[in-house]
């Protein structure tokens, strides 16, 4: 889906972050590899996306393909861990990543699975300049890796069609998040390679709300995501002090 192209002067890409994830590209689909925590995190992300989409677009949550006919953009798609299940649920999925190795890994895996997913190397700013818009734009664990959060989210808001939805997932900039997501996950437990995250790039919820609201988006729902070591599972909660997700919609054009 395309709208009138917009002029974009800057990019929110942080080259050091692209290099970091390019180096791990071959491991995206290894559930026991460097992305093991993301594989464990994926079900709760999909549950939130599924619930938000079914509610907002009035789709039957029991349908095998509830998102038939809806266009979805996954920005910073990595190896396609979200793109593939959404394609299986009927969505027309576009996955965009600034790292060429990630895109090649994702495209190869999708072909092996017989899935038609439009993978592209690029940025949100480039897509916006080309005039693209989508029913749903996903920013999942991306904003804490960009160079300019406000600019990035403003561009992403422009990629949401009127009457569409955006979902953001990220890490809160709190002492608790530093202890759990960096000290615990990277240095004590070794769940993630050291240096995966930089605390100063974690994003407070108000730093998501402000640029989205300024871009004409309306915040719909905010929920935290917490890990239970006894069950080894992530669940949605009211605690947004570490991981959290947020949905926002763009009002339809009247008339």
Give structural attributes.
255 residues; alpha/beta; eight-stranded mixed beta sheet
Furnish the topology, listing elements before pairings:
Layout: H1 15-22, H2 36-56, E1 71-75, H3 83-88, E2 92-97, H4 100-112, E3 118-121, H5 124-129, E4 134-140, H6 149-158, E5 160-171, H7 175-188, H8 205-214, E6 218-228, E7 233-237, E8 243-249
Task: Give a brief outline of the structure.
This protein has 8 helices and 8 strands, in the order ααβαβαβαβαβααβββ.
Characterize the structure shown.
The structure is a single chain. This protein is of the alpha/beta class and 255 residues long. The chain is built from eight helices and eight strands. It has helices spanning 15-22, 36-56, 83-88, 100-112, 124-129, 149-158, 175-188, 205-214, and strands at 71-75, 92-97, 118-121, 134-140, 160-171, 218-228, 233-237, 243-249. Helix 6 links the parallel strand 4 and strand 5. It is globular and about 55 Å long.
Estimated helix fraction: 25-40%
Strand order of the largest sheet: 3-2-1-4-5-8-6-7
Number of strand segments:
8
Number of helices: 8
Whole-number radius of gyration?
17 Å
Run of helices and strands:
HHEHEHEHEHEHHEEE
Shape: globular
Low-confidence stretches: 4-9
Structure class = alpha/beta
Q: How far apart are the first and last residues' alpha carbons, in Å?
A: 20 Å
Strand content: 15-25%
Main sheet record: 8 strands, mixed
Question: What's the overall average pLDDT, rounded?
Answer: 90
């Amino acid at each position: 889906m395309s709208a009138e192209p917009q002029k974009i002067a800057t990019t929110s890409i942080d080259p050091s972050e692209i290099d970091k994830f390019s180096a791990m590209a071959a491991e995206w689909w290894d559930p026991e590899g460097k992305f093991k925590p993301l594989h464990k995190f994926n079900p709760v992300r999909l549950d939130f996306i599924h619930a938000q989409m079914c509610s907002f677009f009035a789709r039957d949550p029991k349908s095998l393909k509830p998102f038939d006919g809806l266009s979805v953009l996954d920005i910073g798609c990595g190896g396609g861990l979200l793109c593939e299940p959404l394609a299986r649920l009927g969505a027309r999925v576009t996955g965009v990543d600034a790292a060429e190795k990630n895109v090649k890994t994702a495209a190869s895996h999708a072909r092996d699975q017989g899935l038609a997913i439009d993978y592209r190397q690029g940025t949100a700013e480039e897509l916006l300049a080309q005039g693209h818009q989508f029913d749903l734009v996903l920013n999942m664990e991306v904003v804490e890796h960009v160079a300019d959060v406000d600019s990035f989210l403003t561009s992403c808001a422009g990629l949401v069609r009127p009457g569409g939805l955006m979902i953001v997932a990220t890490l809160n900039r709190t002492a608790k998040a530093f202890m759990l997501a960096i000290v615990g996950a990277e240095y004590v437990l070794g769940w993630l390679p050291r240096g995966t995250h930089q605390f100063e790039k974690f994003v407070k919820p108000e730093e998501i709300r402000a640029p989205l609201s300024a871009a004409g988006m309306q915040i719909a729902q905010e929920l935290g995501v917490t890990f239970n070591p006894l069950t080894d599972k992530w669940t949605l909660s009211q605690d947004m002090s570490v991981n959290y997700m947020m949905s926002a919609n763009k009002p339809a054009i009247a008339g």
